[in-house]
Write a structure and sequence with these properties.
homodimer, 208 residues, mainly alpha, Arc Repressor Mutant, subunit A, DNA-binding
DNA sequence: GCTCCAAGTTAACGGTGTTAACATTGGCAT
DNA sequence: ATGCCAATGTTAACACCGTTAACTTGGAGC
């Protein structure tokens, strides 16, 4: 269908773009269907031909966000296990810091309840799997402990997600731009927090 | 001022309680000043005698949430360093899981921007300091590496916060009630993720 | 007893998401 | 070529929302 004065022809994409722009500047709470429609030059109910409701529009933004995150994680060099792990962590946090409002939307359980948008859940899983694959590679290379994969990925994901969220929201005193923090944290996880003197104690699991 | 038909006398507290009830059941997005006023049996603008705006009411809920979290963290036994650290982590995640909507409000940077409510920021710091003190104790006992305190607390907080958020939102496959996950994760951080064979490599910092 | 002020009231403004009912029009089958 | 149909717009309206202005009530202190 061509674009005429009546039939817009590109409403879906333009609404998406406009919503993303508002999201970046003011956060998801500021996204208003009526305002977007007015900006595009269309009546508000017209949006309902392309999005079931406001939440569906937000879900689509989050989906494209997960795709972008996945791409950023996929671009990390996977040659050396340790460098790959640290690189993934840095890339993850860098994404969150470069798109704070989008990241908050993607992981804001309150606005996009899990299970309500299957494509969104899948997009999240796709991104998550990049992280998981990196860890599995590290294990196959013998670099990481042979602990259960689910446990290790949960740990790594928790760490980078928590760090992202806390720095984004300004809760960490050292929130600034320094990637030194992210790198230090990742190293700490890899090498452990226990002092070497104690490190031979309590290793009663997963060590051959 | 006594409570008559006109002068309510307990409006502030009742509004707080009612808002907390709605928050627990349906999340902060469902908190409506008009609905709360109607429930209490008062006109909507009456609330503005006690709260500057909706956000101030939410901030007060979050403040009491941080106080509750702090109390829960303070109740952890601090006798043995390792047990204290794991206990703090478990208590933190347990709080988030028992009050998911409150936890989301406390850390939802979008609805309560940092800096807008000083008392809220202070409440968050008070809770954070319990975690920091536990780590400092672990260092003084020689159990933890003498890495910079800020780095270690940022790591620990990121880990427990990320785990809380991910389990709350159902992103972790193993999200269920098992504290086994939280304990495994905490142990992994303490002992490190690198296989023992590699553990003597790359330790070029913080080891005396 | 009078006054003042804290704490309520109603009315109203501008905004929101969403639905119902109607209008336009491009593409496809005849 | 024509006529229908489904997709895609429109306007009007409903039920909310947060918030402010202007007014009223009534208890506490001089």
């Amino acid at each position: 269908m061509a674009r005429t004065a009546y039939h817009h022809g590109d409403l879906h994409q333009q609404a998406h773009d406009q919503a993303l722009a508002v999201l970046r500047l003011e956060g998801d709470g500021a996204i208003s269907l009526r305002a977007i429609a007015k900006q595009i030059g269309v009546s508000a109910p017209a949006l309902y031909r392309h999005y079931a409701d406001r939440e569906s529009l937000l879900a689509e933004l989050a989906i494209s966000g997960f795709a972008a995150l996945r791409q950023q994680l996929l671009s990390v060099d996977q040659h050396a296990p340790r460098a790959a792990l640290i690189g993934i962590g840095l890339a993850y946090v860098a994404f969150a810091q470069s798109e704070p409002n989008l990241y908050r939307l993607m992981f804001g359980g309150r606005v996009l309840p899990k299970g309500a948008h299957p494509r969104l859940d899948q997009a999240g899983l796709d991104a998550f799997n990049v992280l998981q694959d990196t860890i599995a590679r590290g294990q196959r290379a013998g670099y990481l402990k042979p602990a259960p994969l689910a446990l290790m990925t949960a740990t790594a994901w928790s760490l980078v997600h928590g760090l992202s969220q806390l720095t984004i929201d300004g809760h960490l005193p050292n929130a600034g731009a320094e990637p030194q923090l992210a790198e230090g944290i990742t190293s700490l996880l890899l090498e452990g927090a226990i002092a070497p003197t104690h490190n031979h104690i309590d290793n009663n699991e997963d060590t051959p």
